[in-house]
Structures are given as C-alpha cells and as structure tokens.
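Much of the work behind modern protein science is quiet bookkeeping, done one molecule at a time. The protein below has been through that process, and both of its lines are reproduced in full.
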Amino acid sequence: MSTADSHDLIRVQGARENNLKNVSIDIPKRRLTVFTGVSGSGKSSLVFGTIAAESQRMINETYSAFLQGFMPSLARPDVDVLEGLTTAIIVDQERMGANVRSTVGTATDANALLRILFSRIGEPHIGSPQAFSFNVASISGAGAVTMERGGTTTKERRSFSITGGMCPRCEGMGKVNDIDLAQLYDDSKSLNGGAMTIPGYTADGWGVRIYTGSGFVDGDKPIRDYSEQELHDFLYREPTKVKVGDINMTYEGLVPKLQKSMLSKDREAMQPHIRAFVDRAVTFTTCPDCDGTRLNPGARSSKVGGVNIAEACAMQISDLAAWLRGLDEPSVAPLLAALQHLFDSFAEIGLGYLSLDRPAGTLSGGEAQRTKMIRHLGSSLTDVTYVFDEPTIGLHPHDIQRMNGLLLQLRDKGNTVLVVEHKPEAIAIADHVVDLGPRAGSQGGEIMFEGTVEALRASDTLTGKHLDDRAAVRPSVRASTGSLAIRGASEHNLRDVDVDIPLGVLVVVTGVAGSGKSSLIHGSVSTLENVVSIDQGAIKGSRRSNPATYTGMLEPIRKAFAKANGVKPALFSSNSEGACPNCNGAGVVFTDLGMMATVASTCEVCEGKRFDASVLDYHLGGRDISEVLAMPVAEALPFFAAGDARIPAVHAILERLSDVGLGYISLGQALTTLSGGERQRLKLATQMGGAGDVYVLDEPTTGLHLADVQQLLGLLDRLVDSGKSVIVVEHHQAVMAHADWIIDLGPGAGHDGGLVVFEGTPADLVAERSTLTGEHLAVYVGG
C-alpha cells in the first residue's frame, strides 16, 4: 500500500469554535457520517464552523491576493489541528435570495439553457438568447462618435440596438402596481401642515422640505387647491436639479420617488411598518400587456414544437421534461441532453412539481436546499466533502427515502458525506454516527458517542434513548369551539379546495412536499385578522441584535438598572451612551488589512463586554449589565423572579423562551449566530404574548432533537388550553399523532396534488390507511 492511500480520515484536534470543549475526533472519509445531538449542542460548530470553514478558507488562500480582496474574508476556526481535509461543498438551508426577478429557472441555469434553445431553433427567429430574457430591455440609439486617429480628429456616425425580452410595461416583473394617492397624503391639509402620511415623511424632515422649498408647489396651500400644473409637478415631475436653501438637490415627483425607494424592494425584505404602508397604498395586479409572463410580444411569438418560452416556463417541470423528449433537433443535441439531465434531476430529487417561473423567494427552506443540491447530483467530482444541514427538512416521510438514496449515491461516487440530522429515518442510513451533547449551549460541546447506528441505539446517550421513540395516537381529542371556513381556495396548485378548519384545537396540516399545504394555509389563513403567522424566515437584525433586544426585555432591564443606581437608562445600552469608547459597543475591533482578511479581535479595553468600564460599577441584584447579558435564559429565570432584581415583565418573556426550548441561549448572544429552528422558536416566544387568536406555525420541529419535540408538543397544548387555536404545517409523525384534527393534502405533488384527501382525527387516519401519510403514520405508531 502506498503512503498516498493511507489518508482515509479527517482528523480534528482541539476544536473550540463557539461552545465546543476541546473536541478531538476522527471522521472516516468516503463514508456517510451523521452528526446528532440536541439543538445547540455544537453540531453546526463542528461541521460547518470548523471542518467546512477551514476547507473553504484554504481554497480561498490559493487565489491571488488581488482576487481574495473580492471574496468574503474567513477567519481561521479556533482549532489546534485539522488534517486530511478535502474540498468542502456546503448545501445549507439559507433561503434563496428573495430578489423580485429571481425565479427557479434563473437560479438553476435552466432559463439560460432554454433561452439558447429558443434563440437557435425558435420559429420565427427573433435574435440572440438576450431576446428571450425578461431582465434585458430592448434599447436602440444613434449618434456621432469622435475619435482621434494618427493625430487627426474624425467624426463618425454610429448606431446600436439591443433586442431584449423584457415586457416594457411591467419592466420584466410580471406585475404592475397602482398607487392609491389617498394613502400618500391627506389632501385637505397643506404640506407644512402635515399632509403626508408616508412613513418617514414628516413636515420638518427633508422628505417634505424638498417639495416645499423647491418653488414648484406652495407648502402652505391645501393639496386639493393645487392647480393642474402644481399637482403634476408634485406627483410626477421628472428629476430636476433645484436649490433648497443653500443646498443643491434633485427634485423628483412623489410617485416615481416612491417607486424607486420603496416599491423596488421585495415585500418580504421590508421593515414591518413600511410593509404595512405598502400593503395599504399599493395594489399589485398582473401586467395586462404580458399576462404576468414578464416577456414582450416578440419573445412570446417565437415557438419550438408549438410552445413559446413563457408557456415552457409555466409548465410543471415533470411535464416540461416530457415535452423536451419529444423534440428531435440534431443541431442542438448537446443542449437538449443538458436540459434533459437538469429536468430529470429535478424529478429525482422530488421537485418535479415546481415550474421554472416560480419566484425563488417563495420556495421553502427545504425546497431551496434541494434546488441547490441539483447542481451537485450530476457532478463528476469525486473525493469531495459534501456537508448537508438537515436535508430532510420539509420532507414527508415518503420523500425521505428518496433523499436517503441521493445521499448514498453521492457517497458511492467516492465522496465524504457529512450530514447534520435529527430524523431517525435519516440517521438509520449512516455508516458512522457522531453524537454531541450532553445538552445545549454551555452544557454541550462534548462528543458523547461515535460509532455505528446499532451501537448508538444501545448507548446511554440522549439520542440513543430517543432513537426508537414512538408517539401514541392521542386517546381522546378536544372538541372544537367553532370553525374557519375556507371556500374555493385555488392558489398555486390547489384545486378549488373547500375545507373547514376547527378552532380551539391543535390542527395539523400535512401531505407530501408540494401537495399545497403552504398554499392553503398561507394563502387563505395567514392573511386573516387575528392570525399570527410564524415562519422560518430570517430575523431582521444586525450583529448587534440579540434575544434581549429582539424580545423587548432589554428595555425593562435597563430601566431597573437605572432606577436601582439613580442614573439614566441610556448608560445600559451598548449601542448608546454606555458603549465602550474603543469598540463602540461591538465587543470586537475590526482591523481592515486592505485586501487581506479583515481581522476581528476582542476589544482590549472592555474585554468583549461591550460596555464602558464605569457602567460596570452599577449593579442590580449583585450583577452588572454585562454579566446579566451573558446569562443563559435558564439562569436568568430565577434571577429575575425574586429579590432585588425581580422584574415580572422580564420574567414572563424568559418563561416563554424557556418553554420553546431556548433555555440554553444567553440573553446577549448575537441573533446572527442562531440556527433556523432557533430563530423560529425565538419568534414564537416573542409572539406568544401577542393578541392573536389563531397561531400558524410552519414546521416548528425544524432543528429540534427528538427529546425536544415532546417539550414543543407540551407548549402547543398549553397554547390550545389557554383558548388559542393552533394550526401547524408539519411532517413529523409525533406531531401528527398528537393532533386533535388532521387535514391531509395530496395525493401527490404539483398538479397531482391540491386536493384534501383526508380530514379527521389521527386515530381514523391510522385506521383507514387510505393516504400516503396514513400509511407512514400507521407504521410509526405501530398500528
């Protein structure tokens, strides 16, 4: 055996990233290793934060310093030795960019290939692939060009034209917006009298001063008395340079200004108060010129096999693959083969129900992850480390078997596959299991077990004990107090669904991925009054945000500190007066080294505590503010419950955080370090004190260990018993078995789904075994 063949381990020694406690471990190469452990036990810190991060950093260092300047700078993970690393490819659950122009087709290169196909064999011939792109506008121009040649100046006439595919009316968005002017201003008032009702436009602010000082309109005259010219200047005037006071500014009509500033953003990415304003003031309707296809008449007129590119993108991918098979064009054979492979990968991975024109921002986390996976399935690379973050999220038990097959296929090509996972069905296929624990946060970060799945079952670890957990079907179900009637729901693939959702009980909506669960709930329920919808979207916040600021408990804590010490509350904010002057309250100092990596080092003055030294002399209940923010929720609960530090408002929020299983998170931990499941549970804890009557949860078991699922079920029960209605979209059988009422959608995905195939109690579903869900649930409860 040659020395080159002896490197069959990835060796990690002394890993201390985040909460890891000096972890040393050997991971076999070319095997499928699953990492298990409770949420927050350090799985991601080991797999993503240490192994994958170092591999990526090493690859980046092979580029020239000039190129590295354009790449995200990665700090070296806190680890003593890492040997035997191979190239890491990370497939995580980050939602895909919610750019308004991004669709499934543009995100997977399918559109690029289709555009080439149409530009080559489409009848009539229109132009280059750009002519079929809804992001390229048609432009033409002509004029004189001055050139210097051989000491003489000559003028030549030149013209150019670009044929794009963008619909000119909606600019390739597929939707046009009409602005309700009554929502922008109160026409009975003058501008100086506070007529504007747009967030951020106050009578003394620059937003309004540019209008009153421009000379185009009279700031003291009620808007309804404006002449036609004044009203046109106020609302629609083209950008013009004006002088307001001594400052040169660009004046622009209110409507185009709003369209540029607020309406060009994706609705999901807006701040809540701006989103509420946009929802009031703007109505989005399908563009009448292109019927929502985003393309101009030219691009829609060219056809291949009787289908234009807009119709092709609107087809379900499984149907599109069938259409493609029927094309016989030897001149573009390699292109057809590439497209065929791409569409077959979609079907194989269980996304055949999507269409290419589906906006990328509407994909769930699981769908986004599988869309990214498509790139790697056909790749001919071997000896690569693939790192997956809970690939079974959003998958029905029926789909999990298919996902397992894909992971094994990647391994069998000679790759190392590392998977962070909680589902027993996915843990079962591992060649090697690493269990971290024993608990979460500061009580985790140790290796509890490594070996085979059989050995894990027999071991005394938390994961081993719960691996064969089976939930019994709820013996008696609660009676509903009313119902929510949904009639004729037809969003996406729903086929005119009529269903009554019982209120006052725990309702689980289930069905295979793509069967229409989210369309039904988010389309027909989430938009109603008194409904609180909690999804897994990212929390808006910077690295200065933490659970204390997000849940609103920092406010009463600061006031209590201020009252106890007779000083003002602003001193106890690391973003305000109390900030350490050296690092401005960030706790770290960033040294910019030009094109080398920016180095973040702990601030020497405050030692990472973020506060000015004088602030730390003030105490509440014997602790200073930095010590309070460093406490985990579990430790802060008794601290704020009694004695000098008793603050009932804070205690109530902490109890909710503890209820949702976040007892291990410290109050000052940056929100950017939370996982998807943790973010959702933080939102749930924040919203639980709210005014809603109906709670809609989207897969709350995401990222939850088997042991934590029981705690979540207890929390859902408490919500129901307090008189709330809870609707959960979920695939986890333990949650289904625990429900009072199940609504199962199907029978398949995409246009094979969209019907209610069962509604009733879990016991009836198990007894009937009439649907895919029923069969899997029956096997799960041993029925």
Remarks:
- The first strand starts at residue 9 and ends at 15.
- The chain has a mean pLDDT of 89.
- The two ends are 53 Å apart (CA to CA).
